[in-house]
Design goal:
The chain has 220 residues and is α/β, with parallel strands linked by helices. It is 35% helix and 25% strand. It has one domain: Rossmann fold. The chain has a six-stranded mixed sheet, sandwiched between helices. The longest helix is centred in the C-terminal third of the chain and has 18 residues.
């Protein structure tokens, strides 16, 4: 069971006069698909950076399973507690699909053989068949690249997935396929999936929707 919680979080950019996040409280748990929606400038991306431990709030707390994330080694936190999925995929262009998924495991000390076996299984689980495992990102469609990125996020021990506009660079069909994968990861594999998005179809598919406006948040 994984739980990520914010309690009265405030954040202000350096030299800014007003808070970018204003007294934010929210909770996210295993088995749920959560979306954070709102217009540009509402604070969604800032909030995601806080959840990922990339920025530190000026007040309030962020906990994972009851522990303050800022008491962790944050590299460990981002390696073992949360994984990121990006709009722009961020795959290594000179690594094949299977090598991209292997990379985090090898960096964590797994053997190349073990990593390759697990990577192949993960790629198959998101719909990338064996014929495409040795293709480079440039030889995959956008939808396929995002599936590889999801498989890479699953290759760590993290049970919390943070997704930043994961369908933003995809057409409708591929976007819907990615939404379906993320929903199944939450409901069938008990991941905690948190998505920052403008896509209202993701909001409609989510178990819980948080709406942001001017640095404030409300549920529903």
């Amino acid at each position: 069971m994984a739980e990520l919680r914010l309690e009265n979080v405030r954040y202000r950019y350096k030299n800014a006069r007003i808070d970018a996040l204003k007294d934010i409280s929210a909770s996210f748990t295993s088995g749920g698909l959560f979306s954070i929606v709102g217009p540009s400038g509402s604070g969604k991306t800032t909030l995601l950076s806080i959840l990922a431990g990339l920025d530190t709030p000026i007040a309030g707390g962020v906990t994972v399973n009851g522990q303050n994330i800022f008491n962790y080694d944050l590299d460990y936190y981002r390696r073992e507690q949360v994984s990121m999925i990006f709009q722009a995929f961020h795959l290594f262009p000179l690594l094949t699909a299977v090598e991209n998924v292997c990379y985090p495991m090898i960096m964590n000390g797994q053997s190349k053989k073990e990593s390759t076996i697990k990577a192949a299984t993960l790629l198959e689980s998101v719909g990338i068949n064996a014929e495409k495992h040795k293709r480079y990102p440039a030889n995959l469609s956008g939808g396929e690249q995002q599936r590889v990125a999801i498989a890479r996020a699953l290759s760590t021990n993290a049970r919390i997935l943070l997704a930043d506009e994961p369908t933003g660079n995809l057409d409708t069909a591929n976007g819907n396929a990615v939404i379906d994968i993320l929903r199944k990861l939450a409901h069938e594999n008990n991941y905690c999936v948190i998505i920052v998005t403008h896509n209202l179809e993701i909001a409609d598919a989510s178990d819980v929707v948080y709406r942001m406006s001017d640095g404030m948040i409300m549920k529903g």
